[in-house]
Design brief:
The complex is a heterodimer of chains A (114) and B (115).
Chain A lengths: L3 E4 L2 E4 L5 E7 L5 E7 L5 E9 L2 E4 L6 E3 L9 E3 L8 E8 L9 E2 L3 E5 L1
Parallel strand pairs in A: 2-11
Antiparallel strand pairs in A: 1-3, 3-8, 4-5, 4-9, 5-6, 7-8, 9-10, 9-11
Chain B lengths: L2 E3 L4 E5 L4 E3 L2 E3 L5 E8 L6 E7 L7 E2 L2 E6 L4 E6 L8 E9 L6 E3 L3 E6 L1
Parallel strand pairs in B: 2-12
Antiparallel strand pairs in B: 1-4, 3-9, 5-6, 5-10, 7-8, 8-9, 10-11, 10-12
């Protein structure tokens, strides 16, 4: 079945450590996205990538980094510079012009930093 | 820049009744898509319904329908015959169809369904 996988579902880290969240899709989508979700704030865009080897900052990119070396993979690194990293992270993908621009979402990763 | 506003943080509806969730947006673009996503307690985002801006006819999907008012930049979701399984967070989203293919989400409305 085609879809988006995010692993792990729950992630715990100590303050000061970098951590990488995985996102893989087998939908052959060109574009991939990372969102952060906090209570009462909806989904905020961290980074997005429209093609391989290219990505752009979203609204809250500070303290995060990404790479897009393969079409199907878009890992997100939460660095120690991110002041408040505890949140729910959602990965999504789409191909503009296909499926009427629908975004498909992964199940999310809950990151807790103490 | 585009913005999406959901002014109802929480709504309640009696089972089998009808409820309408509000969404307004701001854009200078003429072609775009609008979406309603549902996020149940599992936190998996599920597409409920979508609307193409150039289509005047309101989209419907079974018990879900929208009232799309392009001039007023309003995109409300009507849920008929509400069921307990409809209880969730509902997000309104705007999708661009040109340039950078970004999506802008509202802050969400939590819908409670009362038995």
């Amino acid at each position: 079945d085609g879809g988006i996988t995010q692993s792990p579902k729950y992630l715990f880290r100590k303050e000061g450590q970098n951590v990488t969240l995985s996102c893989e899709q087998n939908l052959n989508h060109d574009a991939m996205y990372w969102y952060r979700q906090d209570p009462g704030q909806g989904l905020r865009l961290i980074y997005y990538s429209q093609i391989v080897n290219d990505f752009q900052k979203g609204d809250i990119a500070e303290g995060y980094s990404v790479s897009r070396e393969k079409k199907e993979s878009f890992p997100l690194t939460v660095t120690s510079a991110q002041k408040n990293p505890t949140a729910f992270y959602l990965c999504a993908s789409s191909t503009p012009g296909q499926s009427l621009y629908e975004q498909y979402f992964g199940p999310g990763t809950r990151l807790t930093v103490t | 820049a585009q913005t999406v506003t959901q002014s109802q943080p929480e709504m309640s509806v009696q089972e089998a009744e009808t409820v309408t969730l509000s969404c307004t947006y701001d854009t200078s673009e003429s072609d775009y898509y609008l979406f309603w996503y549902k996020q149940p307690p599992s936190r998996q985002m599920i597409l409920v319904i979508r609307q193409e801006a150039y289509k005047q006819q309101n989209a419907t999907e079974n018990r879900f329908s929208v009232n799309f008012q392009k001039a007023a930049k309003s995109f409300s979701l009507k849920i008929s015959d509400s069921q307990l399984g409809d209880a969730a967070m509902y997000f309104c989203a705007y999708g661009r169809t040109s340039g950078t293919y970004k999506y802008i989400f509202g802050t969400g409305t939590r819908l409670k369904v009362l038995a």
